[in-house]
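User: I'm putting together notes for a lab meeting next week and I want to include a structural view of one of the chains we've been expressing. I don't have a solved structure, so I'd like a prediction I can at least talk through. The sequence is below, exactly as it appears in our construct file.
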Amino acid sequence: MMKGEGKMLFKSKMKWVGLVGLILSIFSILVHLFLARFTEDGVSDYQSSITIFSWRPIFETLDPSRTSPLYRRLWGPVKPLESLHPDASPRGYYADPSSQTNGFLFVRIQGGFHEIRNSVPDVVVVARLLNATLVIPEIQSTTSSKGISSQFKSFAYLYNEDQFMAALAKDINIVKTLPKNLKGARRKKEIPVFRVPYAASPYYYLHHVLPVLTKHSVVELVVSDGGCLQATLPLHLEEYQRLRCRVAFHALRFRQEVQELATKVLHRLRAPGRPFIAFDPGMTRDALAYFGCAELFQDVHTELIQHKRSWMIKRRIVKGKLSVNSEELRLNGSCPLMPEEVGILLRAYGYTWDTTIYVSGGEVFGGQRTLIPLHAMFENVIDRTSLSTGWELSRIYGREDNLNGNYPVTPPSVEEVKVEAWKTAGPRPRPLPPPPARPKSYNIEGWWGWVAESDNEPESTVIELRTNAHKLLWEAIDYVICVEADVFIPGFDRDGKGHPNFASLVMGHRLYQLAASKTYRPDRREVVKLLEETRDHLYQANHTWLMSIRKQLRRSLLDGLTEASTRSKPLSFLSHPVPECSCLRHDPNETSRNASSPFNSQLDAALGTVQHCPVWMDNEIISRSKDKENEEDLDEDDSSASGLFFRHSGGNHESGGGEINKEEAQLEDQDELEGGE
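Assistant: Thanks for the context. Below is the predicted structure for the 677-residue chain, given as structure tokens.
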């Protein structure tokens, strides 16, 4: 009896302990949810040890010193470009805009993020060229039909209108809307409209648009291909190139809510105190279809790419054949580098497995499956969804109507259709009407059921239109992160029309804002050739192959600039805004040491003739010249830079181990550093 009572008492106490523990757990969860939801900065107030990220808060590898040769090789500035600085100010006589203009210029810009960003500076230049008053460009033609918030109108959905107008007050006249009488005329379609060709010349505007503008006092331009003015302008119009830079890099600021969220995401990325790499895959369905890279996937995605390519051929966007040899195009460098290949490049160069990699871009064709190899090589592969919460993103969308009723629903059964049709059929024996068409229930992220139904692309639903509008905001956040990243590497630099894409604009902005920041521009043809050489032993590469990869990436820091100046700049000035928008600071010590350096001629070939900066800018660098001399003495030794290719752990955590002896490693890294300078 005593034993039975003891057991009952023990069980009763355990029940109470469990109940108290459950209550405390629920209370703790509620407190955390309350803090995360209602504090001013939300999750950003958490310390880095309590993180919403998908990586470990404590890193196993030891960070190299910021003054060590290894750190400078991986993260340090590109020395030949350190003297290059932004300078977009007018360099001669530059008149203020006239109060008497030839009329109003109303512009509708169509396209994605990079097309809008590339077009707005062109529009501003055209307005000054025509002496026209620019109406704030329209980038979202309607809000109701796209299901997005009506509190942001067009341009203000993405950019800060007031900042845009204030920054360009000395360049052109800008108004927010057309006068009432011209608004009515536009609704009635009584104002002349020009569908501007891609990269139109100044002659086109002066001889076709200007006479109509003078006659009607207003014209409307429709820009749809990501640029309405040719990238290279005559020498006497060079000030217009600097105007493009002032628009793109100073006047175009994102809406305050978007800019604040981008700053928060960047702060969370830097919270652990480590540098990070930004990677833009550039793998969109349009680009893959345009360049004929369908066979890179060998699954259902191949059919989707071919369907898009067929659609492009019918509309004469693509002039080639439907069936092309994707492998041959890949070997020629015409296809994107896969995320796995980019990961191999970075690991071979010396970036350790715990390096933080931020993946940008609104769409990675093939889904997360294509990123699995990159995740296997680097533990800390993240994107904006890892660094922000759903409610933070919803705040930048604004108040949007609930579209749950617009989602595809299960079609009614045949019996229900027949009964309903019979009731509304009218007097008998009138034949029954045909049953209504079955609503399409395909999912844009899943099986593309429309491929077999029609040769045309499906019409976008309201949900898809809303998602496309949201992508503008997502890519704005990615743009800020990529520009500010310690290292940037693109997977591809062309869009679905063969024009420079998001990554090209990022590289151009980085070249303007901080030219010495590490921006790899790998030669895809050479990279693929190197990868094919050791395809069977890719993850156990030998030392010679590793050195070849490292030399290729190192050379891309400068050789890539030469390539961009010949391939990208003729299509998009903002992808390579030098030498027009940059200047060189004069350092007497550098001049005396490097007067005969071969890198000077290489720099001239990559950048062209760059004007020297004003004297007041040169004076700032003299005070730091002695410190720079002392730092260069540290470049003689970097014995920790070499190591195993893909080792995660072991007795030595510095750089993944060390099978290469110290003497060989010193020679290797001295060669790296000499080449980098």
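A couple of points you could mention at the meeting. DSSP finds 25 helices and 13 strands in the chain. The CA atoms of residues 368 and 639 lie 37 Å apart.

User: Perfect, that's what I needed.
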